[in-house]
Design a protein that fits this description.
With about 525 residues, this protein is of the alpha/beta class. The protein contains 13 helices and 22 strands.
């Protein structure tokens, strides 16, 4: 059986593979990510490889153009015999862990001394350890979601289950929750056996995978979930057998428990006025609170905001350009941890496009005329701009459709609240400059950090919050964007940059043809 010798920085080891088997299968277990799920489209699974491997074909060579000799894309390669692989080193990722402190009676839903809350995001996983004596967390830990090696978004992970069942993804996420719990207990100086309960939130697909439920029905009409949760489950965590986990109720197949928790933590239901809550992430979930009720939707923005699908893109990690400004016509880039720019994260992508639009290097329709250098070897390509246009068109189109359904204009909003990791790092002025936020709304936009995790912690620590969260899905009116002609029109229009993307948003409120 062929032997794979691998090295990643100071770490190394060996693995075995069947002759003729995909290299991708062996490297997933070592943590290499395949953002497109191995569909040969993103070009992100680069490794340095030598030995008995299949030859690179035309499609792989096209994706590798300009890379050093010996670079291969693991999703294309098959193992023919013994080989050597050098994996890319991953710098420390910035995980958004900030959250609001409980503003409700302290009345935990667990019986023992300690409990924990988790937010399973598509991109990141964050955990909080609590004591029944205090409202604030004793310890916090976060990581990139390990399921990312099987696909950057929910659809690519669902597609992974078609060939592999849900069990590998369940094992990945439950093993990660278990490892994070061990770290949280260590950091807080308590024993593992002192934990007595969990609250675990996430979108509907993430909760299906954590619970071991087949998620394939979520990708096929009529998009019927196996469960909307709102009850206690045994997640079979490796180091915490029989630890009960409460999974908050989802709103629908694509409006998950994470938006339920975000609505709870934001407090918009208890505030007067009209508020739009937006998680500007891979799934683009959002909620509009008006005097007439609560409107919710989810839009498939894709992972471009998290750096996937962008030629030099990455998560917010060391070496990533995180901010870009324009000074005297020249671009000024801020790099996380300083030093040489290696990649471009989502917030830097938004800033860069905003600056390049202002300078005239990008047209309102998104044309670039070629690659645009940013800093060092980091550049923006025409395809990068198109990927951003698709993502921001989906989010802005969803926002417009929610307001259209409620018969409101943006001028009637009291504010826009951004949540989630990317939303909390986003510069509202840059978001407005590219049309992700409507004109004039940057000053009325605020960020509240990891609202989904905060809401899960509030449910864990307060039965009144548990009861309030249980009522939210019942009061929500879900706007199905897949059946909305208005969304289809606005999605296409909103792909453009201002002023083109602002043409006719919400201008004909009388018809409300969804």
């Amino acid at each position: 059986m062929p032997r794979i010798t691998w090295r990643a920085g100071a770490h190394s080891g060996t693995a075995e593979a069947e002759a003729g088997s995909p290299l991708m299968d062996a490297l997933r277990a070592l943590g290499l990510s395949f953002p497109c799920g191995g569909r040969h489209t993103c070009g992100k699974c680069r490794v340095l490889a030598s030995g008995a491997l299949s030859e690179a074909g035309e499609n792989e060579r096209a994706l590798l153009r300009g890379t050093p000799a010996g670079t291969r894309l693991a999703c294309f390669v098959r193992v023919l015999g013994d080989c050597e692989i050098i994996l890319p080193q991953r710098a420390g990722d910035r995980i958004e862990t900030g959250s609001a402190v409980l503003d409700a009676p302290l009345d935990p839903i667990y019986k023992g001394a300690f409990g924990a809350a988790f937010d399973i995001g598509t991109t990141t996983v964050v955990g909080y350890l609590f004591s029944r004596e205090k409202p604030e967390a004793l310890a916090v830990a976060g990581e990139m979601n390990r399921q990312g090696r099987c696909g950057a978004d929910v659809l690519s992970r669902i597609e992974f289950t078609l060939q592999n069942t849900v069990e590998p993804l369940r094992e990945l996420i439950c093993g990660q929750l278990s490892d994070l719990l061990v770290r949280l207990c260590r950091d807080a100086g308590i024993g593992k056996d002192q934990l007595s309960g969990l609250c675990v939130t996430g979108n509907t697909t993430m909760l299906h995978m954590a619970a071991g439920l087949d998620p394939r029905s979520l990708s096929q009409a009529p998009f019927t979930p196996q469960s909307l949760f709102g009850e206690t489950w045994d997640l079979r965590l490796p180091d915490f057998p029989d630890l009960p986990a409460y999974l908050p109720r989802c709103v629908s197949a694509y409006v998950g428990a994470d938006i339920t928790c975000s609505i709870l933590a934001s407090g918009i239901l208890r505030q007067p006025g009209r508020w739009l809550l937006v998680d500007v992430g891979t799934n683009g979930e959002m909620a509009l609170k008006t005097g007439e009720g609560l409107f919710c939707c989810a839009t498939a923005a894709g992972p471009a905001f998290e750096g996937a699908g962008i030629s030099c893109g990455s998560s917010a990690c060391a070496g990533a350009i995180s901010q870009v400004s324009l000074e005297d016509g020249a671009l000024r880039c801020a790099v996380l941890d300083g030093g040489e720019a290696k990649t471009l994260c989502g917030s830097g992508l938004i800033d860069a496009v905003a600056c390049l639009l202002r300078r005239g290097d990008i047209t309102p329709k998104g044309r670039t005329g070629g690659a645009l250098p940013l800093f060092g070897a980091v550049q923006l390509t025409q395809m990068d701009v198109r990927q951003l246009q698709l993502a921001k068109g989906a989010v802005r189109g969803g926002m417009d459709t929610l307001l259209h359904a409620a018969g409101l204009s943006y001028g009637q909003l009291d504010g826009i609240v951004l949540c989630g990791g990317f939303g909390s790092r986003l510069d509202p002025a840059s978001a407005e400059a590219i049309g992700l936020l409507p004109a004039g709304m940057a000053e009325k936009t605020s960020a509240i950090g990891n609202a989904a995790g905060a809401g899960a912690g509030q449910i864990l620590q307060s039965r009144p919050c548990l009861d309030e969260a249980a009522r939210i899905p019942a009061m929500a009116h879900v706007v199905e964007l897949s059946a909305s002609k208005y969304f289809q029109k606005r999605y296409i229009q909103a792909m453009n940059f201002p002023p083109l993307c602002e043409q006719d948003p919400l201008s004909n409120l009388g018809g409300r043809q969804l």
